[in-house]
Write a structure and sequence with these properties.
Elements lengths: L5 H7 L4 E3 L5 E2 L6 E9 L5 H7 L6 E6 L7 E3 L1 H9 L4 E8 L2 H4 L5 E7 L11 E2 L3 E3 L2 E3 L4 E5 L2 E5 L8
Parallel strand pairs: 3-4, 4-6, 5-6, 6-7
Antiparallel strand pairs: 1-12, 2-7, 3-8, 3-11, 9-10, 11-12
Helix pairs in contact: 2-3
Length: about 160
């Protein structure tokens, strides 16, 4: 993974980045991650999250629009490990995760609004590969996401390929 700092990318490309509003916590074993975005839009059902993380995610970040629900977890240690095994760079969850301690030992980036011990339902309801909007940003499949200790930013093209 190329080295980057979101602050430097914001300085270098001020008119090309969208900045995700603060409020996400870091849970994964990778403190910084970047990649091309894939999306799922679900509500308290992680079936599509599981399906996506079970596919090849080399160089990609999964953005999960969970509607901001704080009533159950959409990602746990098994899904985080599955994502890492399939090459995903990271996961951003607009919702909750669980198994925070084991996830901290898995080499994947993970940002979420918080933790919740309850698992989600599994009915296969939701959408994949659609643009989603939360935290002041529109996340478009195929665009790029960068996350580090300073925050999360997105851009329409790969900012790391330019330099």
């Amino acid at each position: 993974m190329p080295q980057f700092a979101t602050a430097d990318l914001c300085d270098q490309y001020p008119n090309e980045v969208q900045i995700v509003a603060p409020g996400f916590f870091s849970y994964g074993g990778l403190p910084a991650f970047a990649g091309q975005m894939m999306t799922v839009k679900v509500f308290e059902d992680n079936s599509l999250v599981r399906a996506a993380l079970g596919e090849d995610g080399t160089g990609k970040v999964l953005v999960v629009d969970g509607g901001g629900s704080l009533r159950c977890a959409l990602v746990g240690d098994n899904l985080a490990a599955m994502g890492q095994q399939h090459g995903w760079q990271g996961i951003v969850v607009y919702g909750c995760i669980r198994d925070a301690q084991p996830i901290s030992q898995i080499a994947i980036g993970l940002r979420a609004l918080g933790t919740h011990p309850m698992k989600s339902i599994k009915q296969g309801v939701g959408q994949r590969d659609v643009a989603v909007t939360f935290s002041g940003v529109r996340f478009v499949p195929g665009h790029f996401l960068y996350a580090d200790a300073d925050g999360i930013i997105v851009a329409a093209h790969d900012l790391l390929a330019d330099g």
